[in-house]
Amino acid sequence: MDLSGRNLNEEIADKERLIYLIEQAAKNTSTVAPNHIYGLGGAGTRMVLESLRQDWFLVNVLVNRRDTLHVHLIDTATGEEANVEQEVNTLKNRIENIRGTCRKETNGVDLCSIEISRYNINETVSINHWDDLIGSDFVEEILSSNLIDVDSWWLNRSHLQSERDSSSLFSVKNGVIKRRALSKALHYKCQLMDPDYGDEFETNYNEDRVAICCSLGGGTGSGLAIEVASEMYQANPAAEINLFTTLPSREERSQSLQNAYAALGELEYLSLDEELNNPFNQTFLFSLEPASHTTGGTDSDDMLEFDATMPYVLSAVYEDNNQPDFAMGNATSYAPFTAVVPQILRYKRDAIKDAERRTTELFKTKQQALNTEFIILNNVEEYLNENHPELATVEIEVEDLQPVVRQYLRDRIITVANLLTFEVLEYKDMNVDDNNDILERIYGDTHDVERDDIEAVVASRSVDEIIQGLKPVYRGQNRDGDEQIDQYHELDDEFVEDLIYHELQRIARLRDVCKQIYAVHESVDTDLYRRTLNQIAIPSIEGKSRIEDLINDVDEIEKDVKRHKNEIGNIEQELQRERNSSSSQIESKLTEYAQDVDGLIAEYRQLNNWDLRDQQNKVKRQLREFVSKLADPNADNLEQTLNDIVSEAKSIDTQKSEELTTLATEWMKRIVDEVEAVPQARIEWKDLEAQINDDGWRSKIFDDGPVDTTTYQENSAGLGTVIDVPPGSTERSIELNDFDAQTKVKYEAGAGDDLFDWIENRKEEIDQELQLRFEGLYSSISEGGGTPDVEVSSLVSVAHSDGITADTEEKLKEALREGSGSRVPELEENQQNLQAKVDRMEERKEERESLLDLYYDNESSVGKLQEQLSEFRDQIREYNIVEGDNGGISASRDGGTYINEVGVDDEKVVSAAISVPSMVELIAKNRTNSSTAVEDELLRELNNIVAKNMTHSKYSGVNSRKLNREGKGSYDQVAAYTAFIGEVFNDRQVFTIPDSELESFQQKVTGNYIPSNAQTNVDRWSSPASHPWEAAVITFYQGMTMLDNIRPAMKYYRGSYMEDADPRGRLVRHSLGLDNGYYTWREQIFPPENDLRPFLGDDSEIRQRLKEAHQIVRYDVEKETAQPNAEGNDVDR
Predict the structure, then answer these.
(1) Interval 311-344: pLDDT, tens
(2) What sign does the dihedral 278-279-283-287 (CA atoms) show?
(3) What average pLDDT does the chain have?
(4) Residue 373 belongs to what domain range?
(5) Are 978 and 927 found together in one domain?
(6) Is a pLDDT exceeding 50 seen at residue 72?
(7) Is residue 809 included in any domain, yes or no?
(8) Which of 343, 373, 388 is the last residue of a domain?
């Protein structure tokens, strides 16, 4: 990068601008250039170099392509060789520097290469005599090479020489000087003399995108364009070749106009005759040639503006765009040519850049404030989760919140809605008049405008739903997300997206936190806690009073705690005195009671500790084991367990020991008796089975009667209480049953068992005895008689292992004190109540102190937030006065600077200008002095018109892409409205418009702000902008002006030379945008030169030769007939 003569600030600014361009290019991966760019002639070279000078164009090519961009500069003049060579070398250095920056910023991604080659035909071709170009030797040589036809029109000295070439010797060192035929001759001569010349026109099949740039008014470009394109097309039919060419202005000499007229004729024949191999995919016409090529080095700012359209056209034509109605799409379907109508835009560059900077700073400050708020909110949420985790699931409605909180949330939502309305929906050409409309845009028919408002919708729908509804809007799609709202613009502003998307998330989170804060009120004894939490969560709605109240509340709690603790101390002293006064008698009586019931408690303890149930269950298991092995019976273990139970019963020290021992012994004997009887019964059973199975005995049955079972009956008679055996009263029962299988244990341990029931009944008797004896003790010391309010049995049964425990003794003492009239119980109750009160106070104090800790932790963030919000307000105030003298934005009629001034990023400036009017409106809406109804109407109208112009809504269809009066009228309106609003902002205190003047408003301001001498489109577009914000109303798409049908451009172009018509010929034909073109005869045409005569002459032989040899003309001589034209003249068709 050549930094000579530049200071450090300029270097930094240049690097920052490059980095910005690289970032934007990385987001837009479209290819913005062909594979080959040809600059033919001086004008063509200038067009190509102007494109390569644009940093944004170079960055996009380098970042988004991986192949090589080949640039070919071909000329015939040698006078400017040194300047062009120096410019190309400087450009190559600039490209390498930018390439290095791109590689660094893209982390070494493979970048495109740009190769620039130059070829000057005159450095190869040596011409000293006419024979060198049209002599027999030359003609035969090119004919033998099949390069041309012998009847090629330019093989004629009259087409090659100029009026000054009077002799046979001449030189072409200064170029062809407007001679199209001469450039063709030199082209073919060079092909014969230099084999490498043809390499300039070679393309590979994978490099099929070619752009040829030239001027139709010059000699080199207009002469070589078709020749060069045809050779490339023949070598590579897959090539997509587009011609980018300029038309001479009316100030050019007549020969330039004639060259352009003739070249257009050739191009149109190629385009309209399907039998011809037209090498051009599309032909784009510029209305002016490059400034530096046509003004002799004295470039005007206006002319330089036209030059800047070339790279935008290239980027639009070759951009990989999938949009169905792309601005360049289907251009060849409705015209042989596409005219590129450039616009000149003047604006206050410094004002726009300053507005862009200030707007960015404004959003950044707001974003920082929101981030600080997020930190505060996060701290509050963490505090709630830690101290009140149970509140996360509490269901609270928004309507339950404090009115000030509800209003705050609603204001936040309305702010987002307003921002969305002004910055997105109107930007997208959506006519949004109020906050309800935004909901219709998001929710469509499901939204009831009459019933719902912003708050209601947010309350009934989740924020995620709202965000999903908004995404298609600011992403440039409809609600369903399947169609682009506007194919020309996409909203990609991180600040706007943050304020819409993340702000809604913040509001949702804040809403949930406010619900939790509200629920806190249910868990504390005052709403001060909640109100303070609200203040911390939303510092702007409460002020400092809540924190001061909280601090005072903590101080009051500390005082109350201290006072109550003093009272508790006094009660403790009084309790001690009261206990001392009655303790001796009570202790004496209680000692007697303890001694009296000591035996009962000991007995209770033994009975309670006896695991009789477990032992009885063990007996049951052993009985089952005994029964399962009757073939080899063994009851030793069972008898041991039974003996243990009887021994345990004998060991218990009870007043009814004999009764317990007898019961245990009888219980044991009953089990043992049955156990011993079972084996004998089994023996008898088996004997009976044997008798039944004996055959002899069977025969005897019929003679002597049934078998005798008396013995079995006697042995089994004592069974059935503990063990159950099968019946054996008949031989049939013995035959059908199996003794071992049918013998079962019948005994069940526990309730219903005599021994177990006796133990439980005895424990209950002891409980009753303990209670009766204590009641007797209580009556002996009670002044008024009565019964004690205590169950002694329950106290003793809790722990009976050591008799009366200390805890039980203390409770019994309390009951005795109460009965004796002591104040100890009353004092103890008062003490407990005061202590509970102190505990609650200390808990409340701890809550408030933790809340104060949260406040102090957030204090710095709150202070920072207030500073940022104050800074934001200051910036808005400063923003409002920066452009005007009286606190507003003033209209300016100064010429200003130009959009393509060195160091200005065109796309960035246009992008900034787009957002400025909406931001101005947003700020104006929030000013202290609200606008009148009329001004509101003007603001809405202005935004509607701006949006329509910005989105090309009138030019989005292929069939309606016309520069019509409607479009120009809109531009007039926007310019007038913009200027007027600027004046309104300049002095809002006194400037208003009554309703009566609304109808005449447009006429009034149009005369003031639209130049009266702006008679043509170019004049109008070239005039100084009437207001610095007028940059927002242009119809640029990425800086490129809209493309139009050929008709208006041709009419304008043709009208510029009709006054110079020449009567020597009558044929004038142009396609004025019709699909098939048409032919017109006129009496007067402009002067034909030698290279125009074959196309304009009346010689049927010339026309026939053109038709047969070159296949350029479509009409047939034999079928010519005279037809009247629109003016009544004869027309040959």
Answers:
(1) 766 776 776 543 333 334 433 333 466 666 544 3
(2) negative
(3) 63
(4) 351-546+852-876
(5) yes
(6) yes
(7) no
(8) 343
**Domain-terminating residue out of 709, 742, 775:** 742
Task: Return the sign of the alpha-carbon dihedral for residues 166, 172, 175, 176.
Answer: positive
H or E stretch covering 227: helix 220-235
Q: Which amino acid is at 323?
A: Q
Pairing of strands 338-340, 209-215: unpaired
Nearest to 135 by CA among 114, 120, 157, 119: 157
- The angle subtended at Cα 186 by Cα 183 and Cα 192, nearest 5°, is 150
Q: Is residue 1004 part of a domain?
A: yes
Can you tell me the distance from the alpha carbon of 87 to that of 49, in angstroms, rounded to the nearest whole number? 9
Residues 370 and 449 reside in one and the same domain: yes
534-544 residues labelled b (16+ CB within 10 A) or e (exposed): bbbbbbebbee
Core vs surface per residue 546-561: b (16+ CB within 10 A) or e: bbeebeebbeebeeeb
- Which helix H or strand E contains 792, and what residues bound it? helix 792-798
Block residue for tokens 């073939």: 631
Q: Is the pLDDT of residue 447 over 70?
A: no
Instruction: Report the C-alpha gap between 1017 and 1121 in whole angstroms.
Output: 39
Asked whether residue 611 is assigned to any structural domain, the reply reads no
The tokens for 462 are 């989740």
5-14, 563-572, 864-873: range with highest mean pLDDT: 563-572
- Give the whole-angstrom CA distance, residue 1011 versus residue 895: 13
pLDDT tens digit string along 560-571?
A: 888 888 888 888
Total tally of structural domains belonging to the chain: 5
SS (H, E, C) 679-733: HHHHHHHHHHHHHHHCHHHHHHHHHHCCCCCHHHHHHCCCCCCCEECCCCCCHHH
602 vs 606: CA distance, rounded Å:
6
Distance of alpha carbon 771 from alpha carbon 795, whole angstroms: 10
Cα gap 1125→1129, rounded to integer Å = 5
One domain, residues 33 and 175 = yes
Closest CA to 352 of 1032, 1041, 1034, 1037: 1032
DSSP secondary structure, 735-787, as one string:
HH--HHHH-EE----STT-HHHHHHHHHHHHHHHHHHHHHHHHHHHH-SS---
User: Parallel, antiparallel, or unpaired for β 1130-1132 and 338-340?
Assistant: unpaired
Check pLDDT > 70 for residue 190: yes
Helix/strand number for the chain, H first, E second: 41, 16
Are 914 and 1013 found together in one domain? yes
Residues in the chain: 1133
- Residue 589 located in a structural domain: no
Same domain for 360 and 497?
yes
How far is residue 232's CA from residue 208's CA, in Å, rounded to a whole number? 10
Tokens of 952: 């090309």
Angle at which helix 8-27 crosses helix 81-105, to 10 degrees, equals 70
Radius of gyration (C-alpha) of the chain in whole angstroms: 55
1111 & 1062 share domain? yes
Give 211's strand partners.
Answer: 37, 242
161 and 253 share one domain = yes
> Against a cut of 0.85, is the pTM above it?
no
In this structure, are 388 and 495 located in the same domain? yes
The CATH number for 62's domain is: 3.40.50.1440
